[in-house]
Amino acid sequence: DASCDMSATRPRVRRAAVGTKLRPHDSQLVCARAVHLVADAGAALCDGTLHLHGGEGGLVEGLAISHFRDEAVVVHTGTWTLRGCSIASSRKSRAVTAVTVRPGAALRLESCSVRNALSAAMLHDGAELRAVECVFDNTRSGVISRGGHLELERCRVEAPCDVVLKLNPRTTGHATANRVKCSLFGGWQRPV
């Protein structure tokens, strides 16, 4: 079953057991209502996209996600948290952008790792992204922003990386206490 859809209004805890390999037939795992998904070590979403919808949002913990041609996570609506998740290319080369946050949506990344992607995250105008204690490794860009609100705190950006932040002038927020091994700001202007 490739759906996290819940009928209750309160978040329900769902567990992906050790060794679970989610391979959605349509390359999508859709969470449309409040959910708390806990993945045991070894549980993974393989070559699929986790689509997050819903005003109530939810929490996804410990899930390993591999992707290549499509984003690993797309937050469409709601306020969501990914905690302790790992996102990586399913191939040896860099995959496309790992995480996209659409207008009106909010995402908090806590202690997550993103490896081998063109960019760790894409933030659209009117969206919010907060990354805390995350690792971005072998990404061309850490975060690309088309506007919105960005907070990057105590994250580590490993080389090779061309630039940590590519920001549109409409972007607000801050970057605090991060360790970077490349240029902090890229071709766009820093936030005002």
Give a structural overview.
It is a single chain. The protein has 192 residues and is mostly beta strands. Helix content is 0%, strand content 53%. Strands 2, 3, 5, 6, 8, 9, 11, 12, 14, 16, 18, 19, 21 and 22 form a 14-stranded parallel beta sheet that branches. Strands 1-4-7-10-13-15-17-20 form an 8-stranded parallel beta sheet, with no helix packed on it. The radius of gyration is 16 Å and the shape is globular. The relative contact order is 0.11. The model is unreliable at 1-12 (pLDDT under 50).
What's the rounded overall pLDDT mean? 82
- Overall shape: it is globular
User: Residue share in helices?
Assistant: under 10%
Q: What is Rg? A: 16 Å
Strand content: over 45%
Structural class estimated from helices and strands: mainly beta
Major beta sheet summary: 14 strands, parallel
Q: Helices and strands, in N-to-C order? A: EEEEEEEEEEEEEEEEEEEEEE
End-to-end gap: 45 Å
**Strand element count:** 22
Instruction: Pick out the low-confidence regions.
Output: 1-12
Separate helix tally: 0
What tags apply to this protein structure?
mainly beta; disordered N terminus; 8-stranded parallel β-sheet; 0% helix; 192 residues; 14-stranded parallel β-sheet
Brief synopsis:
With 192 residues, this protein is mostly beta strands.
Please specify the SSE layout and strand pairing.
Blueprint: E1 12-16, E2 21-22, E3 28-31, E4 35-39, E5 44-45, E6 49-52, E7 58-61, E8 64-67, E9 73-75, E10 78-83, E11 86-89, E12 99-101, E13 105-110, E14 113-123, E15 128-132, E16 135-145, E17 149-153, E18 156-158, E19 163-166, E20 172-176, E21 179-180, E22 183-185
Parallel strand pairs: 1-4, 2-5, 3-6, 4-7, 5-8, 6-9, 7-10, 8-11, 9-12, 10-13, 11-14, 12-14, 13-15, 14-16, 15-17, 16-18, 16-19, 17-20, 18-21, 19-22
